[in-house]
Amino acid sequence: MKPTNRNGLTRLFYNPTARSLFFQALVLGGLLWFVLTIVGNVTTNLNARGISSGFGFLSQPAGFGISQSLIEYNETFTFGRTFFVGLLNTLLVSAMGVVAATILGVFVGISRISPNWLLRKISMVYIEILRNIPLLLQIFFWYYVVLQTLPRPRDSLSFGETIFINIRGVFMPKPMAETGFALYVGLLVAAVVGVIFLGQWAKRRMRDTGQQFPVFWTSVAILLGTLVLGFFITGRPIALDYPELRGLNFRGGMSLIPELIALWFALTIYTSTYIGEIVRSGIQSVSHGQTEACRALGLNEKQRMNLVVLPQAMRVMIPPMTSQYLNLTKNSSLATAIGYPDLVSVFAGTTLNQTGQAIEIITMTMLVYLTISLLVSAFMNWFNKRVALVER
Amino acid sequence: MTNQQDFIITLKNVNKWYGEFHVLKDINLNVKMGERIVICGPSGSGKSTMIRCINHLEEHQEGDIVVDGVLLNNDLKNIGQIRKEVGMVFQHFNLFPHLTVLQNCTLAPIWVRKMPQKEAEAIAMKYLERVKIPDQANKYPGQLSGGQQQRVAIARSLCMNPRVMLFDEPTSALDPEMIKEVLDVMVELAQEGMTMLCVTHEMGFAKKVADRVIFMDAGQIIEENEPESFFNNPQSDRTKLFLSQVLGH
Ligand SMILES: Nc1ncnc2c1ncn2[C@@H]1O[C@H](COP(=O)(O)OP(=O)(O)O)[C@@H](O)[C@H]1O
Ligand SMILES: [Mg+2]
């Protein structure tokens, strides 16, 4: 039989390449139509209500205050500035959370498989309870139940009259550079460089002679010694600005606002339960045979952990760890609920309310989170590739 | 005359339980320096458990185990001392997948024997040559065949310069065509005078190199003899049954 035209079409339809191309084109077309419709609608609506679009609002004065800012800010600054204030606050609480959750999580994860019965049970209960309470509720718990019941400033909990804790937050001395500070920093840098060289020298010596050198403790001694001795040698180049009670609140020094503390605690504790489970399963994923091989070769428990188990566990832990870091960063947007001035609260909240530029602001905010996520993922992928196991 | 000093390994009335389960029953075994012993018996009879007690991968509850003059008890120092002198090869190789073949071989000499890296590498290359895979030194275990991996595992143990080698079914996880390359290495090792305790069902290997064959069943040593008599003239019924199954008659 002669192949007819319809026959050819049918064949095309069952050709996997043609078929997948066709459906991809269909989906892409649908998506394009959807976006264009929305943009069209919104533009019409905005024009009807007399709201101008574009990013001009970023250079207008903001006119509102923000309770915490890492860069200079007051109400005379622009909306563009509020974006950066919010962004830095998001990055601050995320970075603090990632560091603390990692430390706490590793501790919880290792406790979970420790030979100590009590430690094992406590960490199990910790994980099971805190992982199953919604994060928002935990934020509320720290903010409303714990921090709001702290005393008023005049009755502050005081630690040696230098650190004060009250309902307005934590107040502590602020270090201020004096003459000789540059010299002091120079000394510290020199000490760090020295320690790095010491480490390399010890490694070389071990390779050539087999002798081991107590690098860790020597380094600690050098660094601490420089920190303390250098301080006096360079003529005490750091002065402390102490917080002082003036009227209803403390002035001077540094402070952590209660919103930051509540958000930080909640994010840290909530995420640490997941990191704990990741650490535990990472360590347990290393087969028992590895442990037996180490023991049979005479390696001690510390060497077994550091040289064999952890390097292998790391590979298993990196991908889920990445998603926990990203989750924490994204979860930090719950800040809005207690008024911590993060990007969502300040920019996608207050700034949006005042300017009405919803499309521009939401797009910018989403792009920020997307960029952070992509950057972290890219770094972790690179890291993961570097440590990946070589298989056939 | 033999006395304690002549034995590199002594097990005296060793008993071990897993909970209620009596896995080793009154085991007595003396191994002379340079002796090659093959241990066989049905699965679950306690062969692995027995040799794993020798380097304290398992703990026995009663009796004495003395290795190279050191009494095995809960003293970490003694355990470390013994593990340095006793090498072990496992059924599933247990190579370190994140380290190259060479690094697998130098890890313990460097960290346990405190050997300079260069020296450790030279020794590792020597043993990799003996197991006939020096060209794989910079590959990772995952890139090697099972037979090659097991030979690396043997080299890794030898790098610690052990006085005794324990083998726990070293060829059971291998495809048939790879068994020979591993057995060849073990035969050579035996001929060089290494003291060996080897759990295996490779009866050809036993006939070729063993000074003694030990038959275990249900946690007991049922019978031990020179290979000749063991295979041609087994004493107990259980041994006969086992041999007929293994030799496939
Ligand atoms: N960790 C353990 N807990 C409980 N029982 C075990 C354990 N290890 C081994 N056994 C039991 O001990 C017996 C002997 O095991 P094993 O020494 O491995 O035997 P073989 O090596 O001769 O096959 C088996 O019945 C096994 O089920
Ligand atoms: Mg076994």
Automatic annotation (TrEMBL), chain A:
<dbReference type="InterPro" id="IPR000515">
    <property type="entry name" value="MetI-like"/>
</dbReference>
<keyword id="KW-0812">Transmembrane</keyword>
<feature type="domain" description="ABC transmembrane type-1">
    <location>
        <begin position="87"/>
        <end position="380"/>
    </location>
</feature>
<dbReference type="InterPro" id="IPR043429">
    <property type="entry name" value="ArtM/GltK/GlnP/TcyL/YhdX-like"/>
</dbReference>
<feature type="transmembrane region" description="Helical">
    <location>
        <begin position="181"/>
        <end position="201"/>
    </location>
</feature>
<keyword id="KW-0472">Membrane</keyword>
<keyword id="KW-1003">Cell membrane</keyword>
<comment type="similarity">
    <text>Belongs to the binding-protein-dependent transport system permease family. HisMQ subfamily.</text>
</comment>
<protein>
    <submittedName>
        <fullName>Glutamate Aspartate transport system permease protein GltJ</fullName>
    </submittedName>
</protein>
<feature type="transmembrane region" description="Helical">
    <location>
        <begin position="213"/>
        <end position="233"/>
    </location>
</feature>
<feature type="transmembrane region" description="Helical">
    <location>
        <begin position="253"/>
        <end position="275"/>
    </location>
</feature>
<keyword id="KW-0029">Amino-acid transport</keyword>
<dbReference type="GO" id="GO:0022857">
    <property type="term" value="F:transmembrane transporter activity"/>
</dbReference>
<dbReference type="GO" id="GO:0006865">
    <property type="term" value="P:amino acid transport"/>
</dbReference>
<feature type="transmembrane region" description="Helical">
    <location>
        <begin position="361"/>
        <end position="383"/>
    </location>
</feature>
<dbReference type="Pfam" id="PF00528">
    <property type="entry name" value="BPD_transp_1"/>
</dbReference>
<keyword id="KW-0813">Transport</keyword>
<dbReference type="InterPro" id="IPR010065">
    <property type="entry name" value="AA_ABC_transptr_permease_3TM"/>
</dbReference>
<dbReference type="GO" id="GO:0043190">
    <property type="term" value="C:ATP-binding cassette (ABC) transporter complex"/>
</dbReference>
<feature type="transmembrane region" description="Helical">
    <location>
        <begin position="129"/>
        <end position="147"/>
    </location>
</feature>
<feature type="transmembrane region" description="Helical">
    <location>
        <begin position="21"/>
        <end position="39"/>
    </location>
</feature>
<feature type="transmembrane region" description="Helical">
    <location>
        <begin position="83"/>
        <end position="108"/>
    </location>
</feature>
Automatic annotation (TrEMBL), chain B:
<dbReference type="Pfam" id="PF00005">
    <property type="entry name" value="ABC_tran"/>
</dbReference>
<dbReference type="GO" id="GO:0015424">
    <property type="term" value="F:ABC-type amino acid transporter activity"/>
</dbReference>
<protein>
    <submittedName>
        <fullName>ABC-type polar amino acid transport system, ATPase component</fullName>
    </submittedName>
</protein>
<dbReference type="InterPro" id="IPR050086">
    <property type="entry name" value="MetN_ABC_transporter-like"/>
</dbReference>
<dbReference type="GO" id="GO:0005524">
    <property type="term" value="F:ATP binding"/>
</dbReference>
<keyword id="KW-0029">Amino-acid transport</keyword>
<dbReference type="InterPro" id="IPR003439">
    <property type="entry name" value="ABC_transporter-like_ATP-bd"/>
</dbReference>
<keyword id="KW-0067">ATP-binding</keyword>
<feature type="domain" description="ABC transporter">
    <location>
        <begin position="9"/>
        <end position="243"/>
    </location>
</feature>
<comment type="similarity">
    <text>Belongs to the ABC transporter superfamily.</text>
</comment>
<keyword id="KW-0813">Transport</keyword>
<dbReference type="InterPro" id="IPR003593">
    <property type="entry name" value="AAA+_ATPase"/>
</dbReference>
<dbReference type="InterPro" id="IPR027417">
    <property type="entry name" value="P-loop_NTPase"/>
</dbReference>
<dbReference type="GO" id="GO:0016887">
    <property type="term" value="F:ATP hydrolysis activity"/>
</dbReference>
<dbReference type="InterPro" id="IPR030679">
    <property type="entry name" value="ABC_ATPase_HisP-typ"/>
</dbReference>
<dbReference type="InterPro" id="IPR017871">
    <property type="entry name" value="ABC_transporter-like_CS"/>
</dbReference>
<keyword id="KW-0547">Nucleotide-binding</keyword>
<dbReference type="GO" id="GO:0005886">
    <property type="term" value="C:plasma membrane"/>
</dbReference>
